[in-house]
Amino acid sequence: MKQPPRPSRSTRRTAGFGLLAALxxxxxxxSAPGNGKASGCGGVRVTGWKPDDAMTSELARYGNDNAxxxxxxxxxxTRSVRLPDGRTLWMSADTFLDEVYGGKSRKPNxxxxxxxxxxxxxxxxxSRTLLGGSETRPAALFPGTAAGDGREVWRWPVQAxxxxxxxxxxxxxxxxLLWQREAGTAPWIFGVPRASEVATLSLPDxxxxxxxxxxxxxxxxVERRPLYGTSAISEDGxxxxxxxxxxxxxxxxxxxxxxxAPEGKLNDPxxxxxxxxxxxxxxxxxxGAKGTDWQGDPAQSVPILVxxxxxxxxxxxxxxxxxxxxxxxxxxxAGASDGGGITDVVSYWSCEPTGPWHGPTDAAKPPLPPGGxxxxxxxxxxxxxxxxxxxxxxxxxxxxxxxxxxxxxxVIHQDVAYYRPRFLRLVTGPVTGSG
Length: 435
Known about the structure:
The protein has 5 helices and 27 strands. The protein has a single domain (about 10-430), classed as Tachylectin-2, Chain A, CATH 2.115.10. With about 425 residues, the chain is mostly beta strands. A 5-stranded antiparallel beta sheet has the order 11-12-13-14-15, with no helix packed on it. Strands 16-17-18-19-20 form a 5-stranded antiparallel beta sheet, with no helix packed on it. The chain is globular and about 60 Å long. Mean pLDDT is about 85; it is low at about 1-40 and about 280-290. It comes from Streptomyces iconiensis.
């Protein structure tokens, strides 16, 4: 097939932004052998939803505030982590700065950076943007580098967790998982995957201390290089880190992976273990002795099953949360035969982080901003924010989703709502029947 022409530099800067590639290509299907029949938990599904206008409006208020012109006015890649003092740190991938005119538009070529952080106070007000550089020359919070031939290498932050600085230590730090990518030609207009990294931010001042590479994929097939961090959950002394490979770039099936590290060692590559499939092959995974179910060698990682066929599954930016004794996965419905993959969120559930995952079940249809459908806007990257909802197997759950316009990048400056997260409030409950 003839390759499409390489987009101009300005188009690449505005058309990609964040993690939309996996959704728009629609082929990010996570498929692999399962772990057998689930048992020991009842399952959770989404039973209802409504827009969370208050949260959407609060972020819009902050983005429209021109008291400072070196802070966030739009972005994607939205994830969050609650800090010990009650604040919430939000991570943003490609981020626009500069002035917003009349709460509506930006100038055609605003200042932008590859990533940033947003700080929300304990009372739910966004108050600060974390950047690198200086006030007159803002830069990304997590700085980029350059490849040997001068091509840009950048970092997109994904999920963050709070953990002890070292195992058992009283001092806490924030560990931020990063995707390192480098500039490439079509079809890699959203960057070639290079590495999964972990940055350490100090508490309470949120100063960047260091960035360490935890996994550098060596697969000769670039499409099969997984990056880790689309979701991360601390459970029973471990932090489970979910990721996916890049198969969607050419329409192949992408596959999900999961790794784990002891709490306090997320930034130690030697402490990471990768799911290698159930050792006893009997179905349900055991607790997992190192070298059997969980492997120290990332090359031995076995993908986890999401969906029952290779034609339907999850995007590479899926999200996972714990609801009671169940793991709940939410994703845009990649591969839906009715075209709902670019409009609908579905859920899967499992009793183990390694699967098997049961579903899909309809979860929500994220609304676009006014005029969004006519403008060609699409929703993507649904992310759960468990710290803003009730616990247990039921109750409410906050879900964000990003919005972008791919066929006309100028539109996201003409109307800032077309490149900002929006929020839903989900209601979850037990699975009935067969699930």
